[in-house]
Specification:
Layout lengths: L1 H23 L12 H9 L12 H10 L6 H8 L1
Helix pairs in contact: 2-3, 3-4
Length: about 80
């Protein structure tokens, strides 16, 4: 029973990763894990890639910097969100 649960979790994570990559593309590369607190916060705030269009790059950069306790540098975020 445990093996079936683990397989289901693995498949679900892979499917989620595929769906997010199709929508967000290279933006995903800024996260070390799609299942971290900062990535959950990011996808909660920017639930659609269209929400990132036309906004000043400092907005998501500042958001990530605060939610990651400074782990993400503004320069790296700016480059990867372009």
């Amino acid at each position: 029973m445990i093996i079936i649960s683990e397989i289901l979790i693995y498949k679900t994570k892979n499917r989620l990763h595929g769906l997010l990559f199709n929508q967000y593309g290279q933006t995903l590369s800024i996260f070390s894990s799609l299942f971290s607190k900062v990535s959950f916060a990011f996808f909660s705030k920017y639930s659609s890639p269209s929400m990132l269009e036309g906004i000043y790059p400092d907005s998501p950069a500042d958001f990530l910097k605060v939610n990651s306790k400074g782990r993400y540098s503004e320069k790296a975020i700016f480059i990867k969100l372009k």
